[in-house]
Amino acid sequence: MSTTTPARPRPSAPGSTPAGERKPGGRTSGEGRMAAMLLSPTLLVLALVIAYPLISAVHQSLFRESSGLDENGFVAQGETFVGLGNYADLFVGETGARFLNALANTTFFTLTTVALETVLGLCLALAMNRAFRGRAFLRASILIPWAIPTAVSGLLWRWIFQSDGIANNLIGSEILWTAEGFQAKAAVIIAEVWKTAPFIGLLVLAGMQIIPEEVYEAARIDGAGWWRQLGSITLPLVKPTLLVAVLFRLLDALRMFDLPFVLIGPGKRSVETLSMLAWDESNQLRYGSASAFAVILFLYVALVAIVFVKLLGADVAGTKEVRALRKVGRARKAKAV
Hints:
The chain starts with 28 loop residues before the first helix and ends with a helix. The longest helix is centred in the N-terminal third of the chain and has 37 residues, at 93-129. The radius of gyration is 29 Å and the shape is flat. Helices cover 68% and strands 4% of the residues. The protein is built from 13 helices and 2 strands. A hairpin with a 5-residue loop joins strand 1 (63-69) and strand 2 (75-81). Helix 1 crosses helix 12 (287-312).
């Protein structure tokens, strides 16, 4: 009687993955290739609309428009390579004074408007989350300012802040809101908060909608009042959504251009932002310095985003949820084994 010896499995090459076996990341090589193919159009579009303009701006910021006489005595115009000369000019002379003023205005508008919008947006979300008759009408009316285009909103508030406008009639005084001074800053802040506070309110409301009602019922049974529920349940559970909303508003406010441009006008030192300064330089055909302003603004926005995400833990890409799901999946596989 003959016996057969089972064949031993052939050893695989070092570093190779057997067919049908998943890699440590949880996906096969075929899935990785398919994911790369599906993402390639998006990455190509991002490279065309983000990477190429950024590289072009950095390249342009290294040159400066110059004019003079050539060897034949004729006027010659062109670009001269100056290296970091445009960046060095940001801190000296008249250009440096305008840059520091624009940087201060941008930071002031960002901090002030985002802080007010966060408080007001949270209040709007709490109001829209309550169950009462006419709640749908309240939600629609709150979202109207955010739906209005910024240029139209600027013209609307410019009409309100005229010398004989509604604002001066209500306060019984004649303030030149659209002239130089702190009143111009106040006008921009009021218009910006009125327009974009509903955006934060809408995102916070979406976060409140996913909080289970059973949590509030258990808190009421334990004797917790409205303020205790707000501080112990609503705010902690809505914090991730609120942080993402604040981050989006920070990045948007740092690039503020259209509202002060339409409401107050260009060339006003009290409301000139970095975006307005870059536009003014490009309008004067000084593309090198305009590109330098744009690059500095990009670095400023990127720095704020990185610091905000690292310090406050705003999970913009949803990586925390992905890690939690992977951890749960590994735990289930371990239990099954």
